[in-house]
Amino acid sequence: MIEKLPAKKMVITGDYAAAYGALLCDVDVVAAYPITPQTLIVEEFSTFVNDGITDAEFIMVESEHSAMSACIAAQAAGARTFTATSSQGLALMHEMLFVASALRLPVVMAVVNRTLAAPIGIWCEHNDSMPERDSGWIQMSCEDNQEVLDMIIMAYKIGENKDVLLPVMPCLDAFILSHTVEPVEAPSSDEVAEFLPKYEPQAILDPDKPMAIGTFTPPEYIQELRYQTHVAMEKAKDVIKKVTKEFASKFGRDYHGLIEEYRCDDADVVLMTIGTVTGTAREVVDELRQKGKKVGLIKLRFYRPFPAEEIRKIAENVEAFGVYDRAISYGSGGPLFIETRHALYGLDLPVLNFLAGLGGRDVVKGDVEKMYEILLKAKEEKPKEEIYWIGTRGVEI
Amino acid sequence: MEIVAKNHPLDKYLRTDRIPHIWCPGCGLGTVLNCFLHALEETDIDLKNLAIVSGIGCTGRVAGYINVDSYHTTHGRAIPFATGLKLANPKLKVVVFSGDGDLFAIGGNHFIHAARRNIDMTVICVNNYNYGMTGGQLGPTTPLDARTTTSPYGNIEHPFNLCHVAAASGAVYVARWTALHVRRLKESMKEALNKKGFSFIEVIASCPTTYGRRNKMPTGLETMKYYKEHSVIKHGIDPSKADIEIGKDIVVGKFVDIEKPTFDEAVHELIKKARK
Fold first, then answer.
1. pTM of the entire structure?
2. Residue A146 to residue A121: CA distance in whole angstroms
3. I need a surface site. Which of A217, A257, A344, B145 has the fewest CB within 10 A?
4. Tell me, what's the ipTM?
């Protein structure tokens, strides 16, 4: 239960937006461990608990592994749960992430993307969440603090859908969102309650009706469970589209489902971005359009499930396609690049990868302009390279 | 005014390009590091054979400041790293320098098992009662009723008594001092460095920025005054009787100093026996 909260406009950090989103969703249990730059999320949430705004149970456990374990168990007992982490914390949770998804427990966890050691850094890189691609978690990235708050609310609605029943991981860029204040509109608790009904667990641990979950399972059964989880992730695509539409009609903010197109209609070349770089890229697109360059932009929102069809549909009508990545799969390319090339298999157009902002380095307008410059050139002549390390010492482009 | 000394006499132990350190004014960590460097100065440990391992947090920065082979590991994993170092090169003097959150929350399991095996290493734990680096959350050593950012109405969780944990887990040397007891702390560090086996020193430090100001000790000086008034030296006391509670005396001193074969010695003994 939470106190009645009116709709209001606040100037808040991305971390606060995540905590406030979880508060509005009336979560029952939060278990967490501090890690920069996530700490503020659970700290803010503990303040809501201590101020009596929510009667949620809050516990500071002894590690992220325990935090995820506690959330999984609480969810299995029928509670709506929330946690948050970053970087090393997420890596430590790795083992438990697979448990949450395979047991079909829709835990929601905000991940503040921070570079994964070594060496130790605290700034933004996506090499913490992207390796969790195969964990069975729905994974999406936010562009601004408003999207963070809205996405936490939608995450529960998507994850708890009976066709899905998967955990959801909304990601936000370290410091660029987590510690930066922006104006954010928060709906009232009543409106959120109308949008997000009370959590109805499918199967709960109940002493009156004993049940064992996650027990030792022989090969006769596991393969079918893997298949069912895969089908659920596929079904999540439609659910995500439906939920974003419903959210748009109720709250007036439309996130367009799995991806958001920006000036792609008549574009010759298109760049796909993720996270906060999208905002910068939008401006670059506007400026290049003023100069008569036919450039477009795709904001990738969901990494899992991956919107292959939507991306392919756009790529079919362009002459060069660029993918921005803030992480690298050593020896191959950026994770989104690998995924995109797979989605565009058979299409005859150059697909290029731009790596920038790793370890938290700023990605500025000039960097994005460079990406479009390379794409526009690739439209004319076959490029020599596929992967471009933008603004990297020792690398010439 | 004439500059008498251009360099600090302990500069040779520091990566001076990394100084000034990041610790807050009034923090006890500078004092503890200073004591450790003095202890090094007064022992005949060959710096070439000394390795410092730290985890994550404010104390975790120590490994980066001391100019010897050092490893700044991931959160909680200083002791397993140190164990690997010691196994690969048993001649190394291995020192773990880390905080209470790192060593006893996320890394708690490693601590008890390294002590149980009696791995030859010295663990110095700087206890500031909270997670300082992330802004002062409740941790495994936060005293009952203490206020932190996540327990604004007071802590309801019972804290660990670190010296009791160390002794019960099998440490051969266990001592506790506050950051006020600089000479005794330094002597203890020398003893621990010269001790064979798992030696443990808890240093109660000051953390005005994130802990003190929420618990009526808003400055480093006030914390030191508190430690001066409330510290009682009781050598050899059963560490289970040395819980830390708000408003009560802080029992300090050397609690354990025993002999036991180290893991390394036990391995070689076993090999000898097996080959007979």
1. 0.93
2. 26
3. A217
4. 0.87
